[in-house]
Design goal:
The protein has 80 residues and is mainly α. The protein is 66% helix and 0% strand.
Length: 80
């Protein structure tokens, strides 16, 4: 079976198959009707597609946002 066999049954048309409620793909993984390796491969391909289709500006913007979050986490850890 393929992810596309399940994705048409998802609750939302724009389901990303990550954490949305009513995701048929995640349900298939939990029921062991879809191989987890197939799902992991899908996620890897999706990440690669994002990397190659995203502009450098968008990548830098995301990196800066991640850096800010990381700094906040470090500050909170040092306060404990």
């Amino acid at each position: 079976m393929h992810i596309s066999d399940y994705s048409e049954s998802c609750r939302f048309k724009d389901c990303k198959h990550i954490d949305e409620p009513g995701c048929a793909v995640l349900e298939a993984i939990n029921n062991n009707t879809l191989d987890r390796k197939v799902y992991e491969s899908y996620l890897k391909l999706r990440k690669e597609a994002w990397h190659f289709s995203t502009s450098e500006h968008e990548k830098r913007k995301r990196g800066k946002s991640f850096s800010k979050i990381l700094e906040e986490v470090k500050k909170r850890k040092s306060n404990f």
